[in-house]
């Protein structure tokens, strides 16, 4: 399982950067947030906080990471 930001929905508000307890979310040069998967602890806080519903949870096969 992993969390992913849909760039087409992200408004670049920065709320998730503040909300992530692990500092795993960064703002890209394109003004869209992205998740550093190596730091993400899958807590789900960002998904809860995003006002634009841009963060989604994906169920993925461990081997495909
Ligand atoms: S909270 Fe949502 S809209 Fe705001 S920067 Fe994060 S992903 Fe983008
Ligand atoms: S799931 Fe938690 S640790 Fe991962 S990016 Fe979102 S707030 Fe940060």
Automatic annotation (TrEMBL):
Pfam families registered for this protein in UniProt: Fer4_21
Keyword set includes Iron: yes
SUPFAM superfamilies (UniProt xref): 4Fe-4S ferredoxins
Domain 4Fe-4S ferredoxin-type: residue ranges: 1-30, 31-60
Keywords linked to the UniProt accession: Iron, Iron-sulfur, Metal-binding
Any GO MF annotation of the entry: metal ion binding
Designated name of the protein: 4Fe-4S ferredoxin-type domain-containing protein
Organism: candidate division CPR3 bacterium 4484_211
Organism taxonomic ancestry: Bacteria, Bacteria division CPR3
């Amino acid at each position: 399982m992993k969390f992913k930001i849909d760039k087409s929905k992200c408004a670049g508000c920065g709320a998730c950067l503040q909300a992530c307890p692990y500092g795993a979310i960064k703002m890209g040069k394109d003004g869209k947030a992205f998740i550093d998967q190596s730091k993400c602890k899958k807590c789900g806080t960002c998904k809860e906080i995003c006002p634009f519903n841009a963060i989604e949870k994906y169920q993925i096969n461990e081997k495909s990471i």
